[in-house]
Amino acid sequence: MSSNAVPRPNIRFRGRSFMAFVLSPEPPVTAWLDRLDEMLAKSSGFFVGRPVILDVSGIEVTRESLRATVDALNARGIRILGLEGVDESLADLNLPPVLTTGRPTSGIILSSAARAAGRNGGSDRANAAKGAARPSSLLIQDPIRSGQSIVYLDGDVTVLGAVGSGAEIVAGGSIHVYGTLRGRALAGAKGNPTARIFALKNEAELLAIDSLYVVADDMAAALRGRSVQVFQDAGAIKIAALD
Amino acid sequence: MAKVVVVTSGKGGVGKTTSTAALGAALAEQGEKVVVVDFDVGLRNLDLILGAERRVVYDLINVTQGIAKLHQALIRDKRLDNLCLLPASQTRDKDALSEEGIDRVIAELREQFDWVICDSPAGIERGATLAMRHADIAVVVTNPEVSSVRDSDRIIGLLDAKTLKAEKGEKVDKHLLITRFDPARASRGEMLKVEDVLEILSTPLLGVILESQEVLRASNLGVPVTLSDKNCAPAKAYMTAARKLRGENVAAVLPTEKRGLFEKIFGRRAA
Fold first, then answer.
1. How confident is the model at residue A117 (pLDDT cuts 50, 70, 90)?
2. Is the pTM of the predicted complex or chain greater than 0.80?
3. Residues of B with CB below 8 A from A180's CB?
4. B59 pLDDT exceeds 90?
5. Mean pLDDT, chain A, as a whole number?
């Protein structure tokens, strides 16, 4: 890198998660569309402005039939955000993108209409989990090993042990490591610049708060091997010794 | 109740196969009925280290596929009656291993032996995950250098996630075996110290095996080091490690001060 380059602000990337509806057509698709029409007749605006994923693992599809299904839903005012359960070879620029990392959620709103739309799998679990409050912190009592990734976007992560080189913690809130932090720690991952990282011994590969990060190479040698806290101050990431 | 041990490391060339043979022979020497199973399908080596390469007829893949019976594939050691080898296939690859086949073979081996020692291939793919699947005990082999230690850390994570014990919510009993250790180089800072490795991996120590000519010589002769020269330091360390695996309360053999001092003096004179 040349030393006279004009400093430019970094481009900020953020991860964000949204709750999406998953529509799962069942064979025969024409009959399923008829049932969908019946449901829409009762509550016409149900899908307006809501992100909808089309899960076609329940039906056999070709690129043509897939496009026809997406078009049929479009015609009913249901815009498809992405496809699930599709072989990537069927992906095509004229189709919504193929999603693969979806997880079932306990927070879904299950109205009778949604159930009529064919999504009944997992409804018991969703109902059972509805009342339970989500904990706002995650406690991990074992060391986190190289290659493991702990992602907890609902709050703080506390680790009673070391975080190995090549391991990573991503937290929506702050990260507390009562051991040596050798891997990566990314706090405030949902866009929270007030989150902090605390480590008993800093040997980290990368430390990040919100979207600002610092790699091992850029950390002052005096702050390695010590107890530290990491925070954002005036739009910059700072590391301070705790001892 | 038979115990299934996996000897694993992540990284290649750290001494898994040598350690499998040495520990297997040590346990057999101590009177246990032992079978060592080579999971390195396609790159088998355990038969060479045990000096059984000229007697291989059937292999693990043949047994998992039902082509051969287990007793047809097992090779009895010529020196120790209670030590057997189940060799890997050299002509196939890891895709030939099926989960159901392995389940069946391990169940059968558990009935016939006290110890089933699985020599894992390097890596974290199918071969390695199948080798660790049934393990009750894991021996994680590590060299005192950063890449090997990080790979071992990764393997320890997989042992806590991808084994049958982990799926049942139990824990695999993990032990660390540090191999190819050179006290002189460690004291000069060219190698990680034993304490450093233990601190990073936070796993109990089974033993420290010194880098030595005896191990190399024994491997080339096709004799486990625990049988070839019972008085050399590596053989003693493996014998102690085997006693620890059997549940005896003995301290791991650490590289002795005496030797360290000798090396220091020797090193200074040579300089």
1. very low
2. no
3. 199-200
4. yes
5. 81
The Cα of A159 is separated from the nearest Cα of chain B by a number of Å equal to 14
Tokens of B263: 């090396």
Q: By the CB < 8 Å criterion, does B204 face chain A?
A: no
Q: A148 contacts in B (CB within 8 Å)?
A: 157, 161
pLDDT tens sequence across B105-125? 999 999 999 999 999 999 999
Residue A54: its pLDDT value, please? 87
| pLDDT computed for residue A129 by the predictor | 42
CA distance A170 to A185: 6
